[in-house]
């Protein structure tokens, strides 16, 4: 039995909606084909952005979208991606498959995509191979309203008014593909580059420094010690896979029970990582002004057989849904420090929301989790006390049931529960205190096989259904979760 006390009158903080953010890189078929098909495409589009994908993404309320990378960001030169498309410079995307990047999707197209999505842009600048001037001029081009070389050039390129831009990253993975730097060296460069990322007019930039890889706590220590006064956010990257990063991460669809457990135990590892990085951040920033920005997370499996290894195309099963549900619960529960997170990557790459094949598309189980969880966006986090069963995984174990709870501005309580066991159900008692429960309803996303997924032949195999397997007594709500299930309860 699993027991939870939900304190509806203890609301430690608001869950920043940006925790439900996304990341789209110039990688494989994410931007080209997935989001952008161009105005001349036979695939229905609005100014080059495909309508079917945008309409589906609008349903999950993407609050913020990170672009253009990833590793691509540190070799992207934004000036090559503005002006008439036919005259834009072609380049080689050396990180991702060595394909030709024609720069048809650039700054104007990205800002237009964000407008169509109703998402805020989060642009990642180039430190690894770019200059201070180039970064500074990008912000001027985007946000300056007066007369200046960059603002005038923007107008020549068809955009009169400046855009509003809040989130700006100063490089990506500067410990790796973004320049292979030491933290001391990057901290100095960060301070130099960010100096020239200016606030023009009323536009205020929220500056995000390149943070640690996984458990590189030393990187966090140095960045916070040397540069926390100059940043608003520090990024963290952590991907989930059962295997070995270089030797083989494991298949997305063809996996064993022990790989199931290992994947979910590694998803839970996010909780430990956040606690440890946050402890270091607390030392230098006890007020929690600086956000920990998990701007790359999600599953990373071996590519689908027969696809370009540099395109990172993988299928998505109910296992991915449970990784997403568990991770989002972890983020909600740490939303005092986690101010934004961006799952990698929106379409056709890694743990995608949507897969496309020509003019066809499907919604993945992960998409459905984001759709179910959108009720947590900007809601007040509720304190939850838990007593839970565990699942053994090798020498260690992890919680069988993951939970988070929030209260919306309209006063509705939402409780998201994930049963991570692949064969056993989970009974859960929910004791909601400080609230008079008058009605309860639920939705569920569940699988019957560990690798249940949506395919182009069977697009609705995994989709949310009505959930009724709960019972109300005067004191509690008794819930019976089936195996491999994500449930969202709404309590009014
Ligand atoms: O998301 C794929 C890649 O993973 C990104 O480009 C990079 O930042 C990370 O290593």
UniProtKB/TrEMBL annotation:
Pathway: Glycan metabolism. Transmembrane segments: none annotated. It catalyses: Hydrolysis of terminal non-reducing alpha-L-arabinofuranoside residues in alpha-L-arabinosides. Its EC number is 3.2.1.55. Residues 295-485 form the Alpha-L-arabinofuranosidase C-terminal domain. Coiled coil: none annotated. InterPro entries: Alpha-L-AF_C, ASD1_cat, GH, Glyco_hydro_b. Keywords: Carbohydrate metabolism, Glycosidase, Hydrolase. Homohexamer; trimer of dimers. Belongs to the glycosyl hydrolase 51 family. This is non-reducing end alpha-L-arabinofuranosidase. It comes from Halobacillus salinarum.
